[in-house]
Write a structure and sequence with these properties.
The protein has a single domain, classed as TIM Barrel (Alpha-Beta Barrel), CATH 3.20.20. The model has no long low-confidence stretch (mean pLDDT about 95). The chain is of the alpha/beta class. Helix 2 packs antiparallel against helix 9, helix 3 runs parallel beside helix 4 and helix 6 packs parallel to helix 7. InterPro entries: 2-IPM_HCS-like (IPR050073), Aldolase_TIM (IPR013785), PYR_CT (IPR000891). It comes from Streptomyces vietnamensis.
């Protein structure tokens, strides 16, 4: 199993820039002791895109002989439409990552399930530049059976991938649908399958475990579920389910008490009525009004 922790990225989305430096430094020290495999630093953008948010990738000091790998997320919807322009944009991103303060080894390309072809050109460029590449298939619960077949066929045609992530963008996934999606993806794509579960309906941890039992070998989580809206699978709960002892988790729980719980008081992520209703209706939270 590969555990990818999204705390820095989803926490940065929540705060509109980046998490506090003190939180980032203490978090990185804790992750090195917990056996987390990959840490997602943030979202990455073409430096030529002046409208892109800044400050997502933190130049924080790392503990000596640091273990986990680092990833970033690239939203392909922000790239140019033509292959040539998208390739050029991905080249600038690759150059930025290569000269950054932290060695990034993995890029996850977020793409809607019905637009996988848009990811092809930047994905090939990044793979040729030496990065591991993953697909991060958003809105996947909305795909009909023919659309899912087409999506997975296009994904398989992209060549070697580190993983293909099924993203519960709307917090709408139910366990039976998770099983169906994981099994279909495993049958169609040779890459490992991952799950990114949101907690609108209180199913994030359960869906992550169900995905794992169905053959998904990559799991996303975030400390205390930190992230916009209802938040994600909670790292501390997933680790406990996987066998971590109270002693193992003590530094992480101290991090939550010191740094993350105060952020929750300020930003208030979690499954309130609007998030629950949006998940049930399979629509964005912003579309739910009057609650």
């Amino acid at each position: 199993m590969t555990l990818l922790d999204c705390t820095l990225r989803t926490g940065g989305r929540l705060t509109g820039g980046s998490v506090p430096l003190a939180l980032a430094a203490d978090y990185l020290a804790v992750c090195a002791r917990l056996g987390i495999d990959v840490i997602e630093l943030g979202s990455v953008h073409d430096p030529a895109d002046r409208s892109a948010p800044r400050g997502a990738l933190l130049p924080v000091p790392l503990p000596e002989r640091y273990g986990p790998r680092f990833s970033v997320l690239l939203d392909t919807a922000r790239l140019p439409v033509t292959d040539a322009a998208a390739t050029a944009s991905a080249g600038r991103i690759a150059d930025t990552l290569a000269t950054g303060p932290v060695s990034v080894g993995l890029v996850r390309l977020a793409v809607r399930y019905d637009r996988v072809a848009r990811a092809a050109a930047p994905l090939h460029l990044l793979r040729e530049a030496g990065f591991g590449v993953c697909l991060f298939l958003t809105d996947i619960d909305l795909a009909s059976y023919p659309e899912l077949d087409r999506c997975l066929g296009e994904s398989a045609a992209l060549g070697p991938l580190d993983a293909v992530f099924l993203v519960d963008s709307l917090g709408s996934l139910r366990p039976e649908r998770v099983i169906e999606l994981v099994q279909s993806t495993r049958a169609a794509v040779s890459a490992p399958v991952g799950i990114h579960a949101r907690d609108n309906q209180g199913f994030a941890l359960h869906n992550t475990v169900v995905a794992r039992s169905s053959g998904a070998t990559w799991q996303d989580a975030a400390v205390y579920g930190i992230g916009p809206g209802a938040g994600l699978t909670r790292t501390e709960q997933l680790l406990a389910l996987l066998g971590a002892t109270p002693t193992d988790l003590a530094p992480l729980l101290a991090l939550i008490a010191t740094h993350v719980a105060p952020l929750k008081q300020r930003y208030g992520w979690g499954a309130g009525p609007r998030q629950v209703m949006a998940g049930l209706a399979r629509i964005p939270v912003a579309s739910v009004t009057g609650l």
